[in-house]
Amino acid sequence: MFRKETGRLTAALVRALGDFDLAEELVQEALLEAVEHWPKDGIPEKPGAWLLTTARRKAVDQFRRQARYRDKLMQLERAVMTVDAAEGDDRLRLIFTCCHPALSREAQVALTLRAVAGLTTAEIARAYITSEATIAQRIVRAKRKIVDAKIPYRVPAEHDMGERLEEVLAVLYLMFNEGYLSTTGDRASRRDLAEDAAWLAGLMVRLMPEEPEALGLLALMRLHLARADSRFDMDGDLVLLQDQDRRRWDQERIASAMVVLRRAATLRRSGPYQLQAAIAACHAEAKTWQETDWRQIVALYDALLDLMPSPVVQLNRAIARRYLDGAPKALADVDRLAEALDGYYLFHAARAEMLRDLGRDADARLALRRARDLTDNPAERALLERRMG
């Protein structure tokens, strides 16, 4: 509940007060009070409204004690604050504020994931594969820059949106990924966070209906969410794509994603999100694992590498190539990425499967053990341990 409400509450308070640090402080105080009261009194019928009322009361108490905050108190009393009214507009304003071009790309993404998605500094650090201290410094500097540069809290005019589009979409993508398969904590996934990111991506499409990459990202999220109910078994264990019950896939969601993806294609400006969505569509359209069009998927990865060359994309291409050209050629591609991806658990997990195909079971177990040690996700760890035998 806290994760669900944090971004909404922060957005409402930033809108009312124009102060990131103060808004976050009030949110934390409201959450602490909830921790004290809810276990005894029960979760209120409208938890968001309860938290907002509590934060507002704490703001009023603080402002009354400090004369220099008199203007803030007047600002707060004039503000119409609800967690429901124009909530999407509020959160989009917050995203665009965090993604202002005056901030560095790294700061934009870190601050938005913290303020809008409610991710912890540790979770953001995992997504970036960097230290918590580095992320904390980025967030502090970004908030200070917003104040010093007097960056306005608003959705920019249409002609200014383009310069922030890439950053906004990157934030929503990372937010979705953290929800779809968590990097930290005791939960394998956070469906509400992934659904939230898809909802915000839908708002972006309504704001910018002629932007093919916004459409591509929305299609990608819908295609992944269509498979969400089949990704875990009754015991909470992760089910690999090839083993999923495709009858449980949400065909209505797949169909809506395909409509969005075709709409993006008519705009004739290809991009990374559209290509990733096209790859997901290949899986969604295959009635069985054996019918998957691996030739098309490898071709799409080739196109993606032209636009976004990275070791992770090369790894994904190699995984697809295993099913097209066999394990020996795929393993050779994977081994060339050893230096770049030694700290990435999926590198070792993929390598283990190829080694097993070649009968090198002892080497495969070592690779699986290395993969297990590199992930904190409980479902992934359990899956890797099962495969170690």
CATH topology of the domain at 311-389: Serine Threonine Protein Phosphatase 5, Tetratricopeptide repeat
Q: Could you spell the SSE succession in H and E letters? A: HHHHHHHHHHHHHHHHHHHH
Mean pLDDT equals 85
Number of strands: 0
How many helical elements? 20
Question: What does this protein structure show overall?
Answer:
Residues 83-87 have low confidence and may be disordered. The protein has 389 residues and is mostly helical. α6 (105-115) crosses α9 and α11 (212-226) runs parallel beside α13 (272-285). The chain is globular, with a radius of gyration of 23 Å. Helices cover 72% and strands 0% of the residues.
Topology:
Layout: H1 2-17, H2 20-41, H3 47-65, H4 70-78, H5 87-98, H6 105-115, H7 121-128, H8 132-148, H9 158-180, H10 191-207, H11 212-226, H12 251-266, H13 272-285, H14 294-307, H15 311-325, H16 327-335, H17 338-341, H18 345-357, H19 361-374, H20 378-388
Please outline what is shown here.
The protein is mainly alpha-helical. Helices cover 72% and strands 0% of the residues.
Task: Tag the structure with descriptive keywords.
single chain; 389 residues; mainly alpha; 20 helices
